[in-house]
């Protein structure tokens, strides 16, 4: 695991964008695993700007998102499909048909999870998997105690994650407690895993991920076992590292 400590969230976003740009130079038909949440937004803006300037193109790229809420239609403003369209896909030259988000509203969720895994394999696997980290060490919606070899599946969210994400829902609005998420085993098969963490609220999780034991209590600690995991943190998120 390579840990890169940078001054600010802007530096983290630029460094991350450089890695995507280099991958696109190597292979314009790359396959990217993408994340939602606050952390990657600046990176997406950086990529949008570089796309606008013609420095990189997503014309041949295929994407697979990490996770989606169960029982929210794709059109719901809090669905991760809606987030990805409005924060990223609508602003770049990607073919929308090449973007996939786990289906949160499938009639048969178990079959849909198997299909999602098959689609990733059929695409040749993921070149770069982008991740954020939850305060409890989750990656995707693989909450603490998740099996470290898990595959795409339905997962119950912890109280902490529900509370952390409540800020995106208005008072009284239905907030799902179930999700569909790539598994830790799925994530670990990506050729490069790129985890971003910024801000002091992530410092304890970053410490557990980097310096703690590899344990299902901190799902992100599995990345210690990945042959090419890069962790980009700002000074605040790195503040508890030894
Ligand atoms: C998002 C995801 C989550 C987030 C994590 C951090 O697709 O899978 O694991 O990366 O909850 O969220 P933020 O970036 O909002 O702090």
Automatic annotation (TrEMBL):
Q: Where is the active site?
A: 67 (proton acceptor), 136 (for ring-opening step), 138 (proton acceptor), 143 (for ring-opening step)
Origin organism of this chain?
Parahaliea maris
Q: In which pathway does it act?
A: Amino-sugar metabolism; N-acetylneuraminate degradation; D-fructose 6-phosphate from N-acetylneuraminate: step 5/5
This chain belongs to the protein called Glucosamine-6-phosphate deaminase
The EC number(s) given in the record are 3.5.99.6
Activity regulation text: Allosterically activated by N-acetylglucosamine 6-phosphate (GlcNAc6P).
> Residues at site: Part of the allosteric site?
146, 153, 155-156
Q: Which Pfam families does the record match to this protein?
A: Glucosamine_iso
Under the subunit heading, UniProt states: Homohexamer.
Keywords of the record, alphabetical order, are: Allosteric enzyme, Carbohydrate metabolism, Hydrolase
Name the PROSITE patterns on file.
GLC_GALNAC_ISOMERASE (PS01161)
GO CC annotation, single: cytoplasm
One GO-annotated biological process of the protein: carbohydrate metabolic process
The keyword Transferase is assigned to this record: no
Q: What is the role of the protein in this entry?
A: Catalyzes the reversible isomerization-deamination of glucosamine 6-phosphate (GlcN6P) to form fructose 6-phosphate (Fru6P) and ammonium ion.
Name the chemical reaction catalysed here.
alpha-D-glucosamine 6-phosphate + H2O = beta-D-fructose 6-phosphate + NH4(+)
Question: What family does this chain come from, according to its entry?
Answer: Belongs to the glucosamine/galactosamine-6-phosphate isomerase family. NagB subfamily.
Could you tell me which Gene3D superfamilies the record lists for this protein?
Answer: 3.40.50.1360
> Where does the Glucosamine/galactosamine-6-phosphate isomerase domain lie?
11-225
Q: Which InterPro entries would you find in this protein's record?
A: Glc/Gal-6P_isomerase, Glucosamine6P_isomerase, Glucosamine6P_isomerase_CS, NagB/RpiA_transferase-like
- Gene Ontology MF: a single term: identical protein binding
Q: What SUPFAM superfamilies does the record point to?
A: NagB/RpiA/CoA transferase-like
Under the heading HAMAP family, the entry gives: GlcN6P_deamin
């Amino acid at each position: 695991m390579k840990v890169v400590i940078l001054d600010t969230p802007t530096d983290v976003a630029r460094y991350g964008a450089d890695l995507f740009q280099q991958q696109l130079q190597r292979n314009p038909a790359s396959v990217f695993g993408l994340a939602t949440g606050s952390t990657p937004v600046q990176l997406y803006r950086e990529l949008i700007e570089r796309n606008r300037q013609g420095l990189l193109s997503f014309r041949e790229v295929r994407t697979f998102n990490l996770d989606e809420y169960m029982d929210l239609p794709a059109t719901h403003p809090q669905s991760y499909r809606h987030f990805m369209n409005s924060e990223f896909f609508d602003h770049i030259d990607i073919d929308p048909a090449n973007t996939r988000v786990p289906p949160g509203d499938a009639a048969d969720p178990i079959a849909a999870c198997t299909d999602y895994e098959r689609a990733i394999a059929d695409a040749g696997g993921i070149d770069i998997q982008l991740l954020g980290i939850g305060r409890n060490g989750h990656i995707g919606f693989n909450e603490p105690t998740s099996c470290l070899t898990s595959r795409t599946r339905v997962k119950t969210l912890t109280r902490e994650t529900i509370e952390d994400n409540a800020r995106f829902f208005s008072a009284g609005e239905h907030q799902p407690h179930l999700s569909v998420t790539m598994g830790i085993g799925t994530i670990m098969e990506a050729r490069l895993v790129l985890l971003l963490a910024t801000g002091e609220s992530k410092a304890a999780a970053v410490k557990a991920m980097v310096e703690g034991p590899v344990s299902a209590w901190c799902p992100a600690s599995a990345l210690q076992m990945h042959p090419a995991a890069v962790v980009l943190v700002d000074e605040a998120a790195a503040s508890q590292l030894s």
